[in-house]
Amino acid sequence: MKTEEAKYKIEQISEQLRVHNHSYYVLSESNISDYDFDMLLEELQKLEEDFPEYAFEDSPTKRVGGTVAKNFETINHKYRMLSLGNSYSKEDIEDFENRIKKLVENELEYVCELKYDGVAIGITYKNGKLFQAVTRGDGVQGDDITANVKTIRSIPLQLKGNDYPDEFEIRGEIFYPKNVFEALNIAREEAGEDLYANARNTASGTLKMQDSGVVAQRRLDCYLYFVLGDNLPFKTHYDSIKKAGEWGFKIPTEKFKSIKKCKSIDEIFEFINYWDKERSNLNFEIDGIVIKVNNYARQEEIGFTAKSPKWAIAYKFKAEKVATKLLEITYQVGRTGAITPVANLAPVLLAGTTIRRASLHNSDQIEKLDVRVNDTVFIEKGGEIIPKIVGVEVGQRDIFSVPTQYISVCPECQTELHRKEGDAKHFCLNEWGCAPQIKGKMQHFISRKAMNIDGLGEETIDLLYEQNLAKNIADLYELNFDQLFELESFKEKKSQNIIDGLIASKQIPFERVLYATGIRFVGETVAKKLARQFKKIDNIINASFEELIAADEIGDKIAESIIHFFSIESNVELINRLRNHGLQFELSEDQLANATTKLEGLIFVVSGVFSKFSRDELKNSIEQNGGKVSSSISKKTSYIVAGENMGPSKLAKAEKLEVEIINEDRFLELIV
Ligand code: IVH
Fold first, then answer.
1. Has this prediction a pTM greater than 0.70?
2. Could you tell which of 79, 140, 173 is best to mutate to test the pocket of ligand 1, judged by most ligand atoms within 8 Å of the CB?
3. Which atom of ligand 1 is the closest one to the Cα of 292?
């Protein structure tokens, strides 16, 4: 075959296959037999082998996977991956509407959609091509699973049309269709393997497989429901979804009644009631309905809480409830010494999962439910992964039953338990002598948001602890290659990885080291504030209670905890050992050089889209220069930094309260 002819054929067959793919996997319409499809695919594969120079990067043949990932790269989300607030009743939805009505004057329109019960994914497209697919992770950063996602037939590799933005992200949910999941389990049963208990967890496991060739055979599917980008060409969420459909994505549609514009709560409830009945007929799991404010400008006015948009809410269908027997109550000790009672149950099937354990939270909960060993209890699986006990069948209790006596000593180290006023939980205070606490502290130290040490995971920490190789976080830095290499199943690469990861972690900035240290109540944000204001660890160690609470956003509880932490000599020693190993215990020169007090005492509200900064960069810059960022406009607001598309109600409020509005150039002048 001549090369010109081959080039033409490759183009032609690729396009044909793309069209068939879209009809079959996205629109659920079949225009070609499986056999003919496979023949075309085979022909293309052969042509691509003979003329690789003409093969498209995103050819339909690439769907079969083939790349093998060792580790998934961690990627920062450009836009945080938020969750949704939950609601369970008409009253909850009315409250949601009332909260919104306080923030906007215009008439509201909602969009109702299905709440797909799968694994959240964010997919970035550049110039119409699938560029990168990232898992939710912790919402701030996730794993790059592009190779695996590219094998999902309903996700386009190349978009249709020519009116898509140069770059945008689309979010959705990857899941196993019910029939595919069932077939997977039948095959496992035939092969004598354990069955998968839960479709969502299995989908999540599949997406983390290292061999995309295996993922390709698994027939995962994906619905997309949220478009994000810097200057999107739409005014409403509904239009964005419709356009996404035209570009080739599998989206909720009017045709299947899986999306609907609603003007009132009654209309929303019509949609909810319809799907509460119909959901069992779907070939995928949904766990509720999502209600979103349609208009982007209104969404912008309504804004976000730290965790979720205030303009959207999830309505959760009533959870399934079953009865089973409580066999035993055991007690777990957490990283902070907090005790959690756990109900061990007679195994029972609930919403597709076999349940053996449920959390009982604390002693008050046990008392409130008056739950006793041998009781028949009702368990429910709500939004949480861990099911909960919601009641006891008192009528079935035998007459010799006695109330549960809560433990008084730690089940791990036998130290007497304490419960401080205001704490719901009992605590074991033997921080340095109680195994789960010590291991928990080390696990927190290496975790992603803390030191993020490559190669070290929870299991390795357990092993190092059990083998007496690391009994605290400083010991980790004294490990050598030979000690690791001698451990069972530790090959050269794995051992070297850990050593390299530990060395690399010495560059982690002060605020994260401070967070990693694990002082109670010093979370990520507090660690940042402390680092910025005190600049080095010694200033924190030596600070008095008064000095601590004088710092921005540090209250009594945090200050007390910090004082307590450093009053323990072994903690100070630990810090000194880490410092001698070269960890960062003060702000870097760079951070110090960029930090100023130019905005001290000023409170900023940031609104709209900016050209010189991302919104997070702008907020960081305000804080770096000593200013404060607030999410709502009040009399105390010093400036609103406004970009494009600032919401009209924010504008009105700013004018009413006479708060000065500045653009990003004027902001830059404030900090030079
Ligand atoms: S919108 C900022 N729409 O449910 C709003 N989410 O429990 C982003 N989900 O984080 C979410 N179906 O992973 C949206 N139609 C839908 C959804 C949906 C399922 C997931 C998503 C979200 C979680 C919240």
1. no
2. 173
3. 1
Cα 123-286-261 angle, rounded to 5 deg: 80
Beta strands 85-87; 312-316: pairing state: parallel
User: Which range in 22-31, 436-445, 625-634 is most confidently predicted, on average pLDDT?
Assistant: 436-445
**CATH code for the part of the protein at 321-411:** 2.40.50.140
- Fold equal for 435-507 and 510-592: yes
How is residue 108 written in tokens?
């509201």
Per domain, the residue ranges of the chain are 3-62, 74-316, 321-411, 435-507, 510-592, 598-671
| Residues 67-115: tens digit of each pLDDT | 666 678 989 999 999 999 999 899 999 999 999 999 998 889 999 999 9
Which CATH topology does 598-671 take? Rossmann fold (3.40.50)
Ligand 1 midpoint to CA 212 (Å): 26
Options 3.40.1400.10, 1.10.150.20, 1.20.1250.20, 2.60.120.330; CATH for 435-507 is: 1.10.150.20
In the numeric block, the tokens 């056999």 are attached to 35
Say if ligand 1 is within 6 A of residue 82 CB: yes
What is the tens place of the pLDDT at every residue in 331-359? 999 888 999 999 999 999 886 678 899 98
Query: If you measure from the C-alpha of residue 151 to the centroid of ligand 1, how many angstroms do you get, rounded to a whole number?
Result: 22
Is residue 287 within 6 Å of ligand 1 at its C-beta? no
Distances (CA, A) of 517 to 137, 430, 434, 520, 575: 22, 17, 17, 9, 8
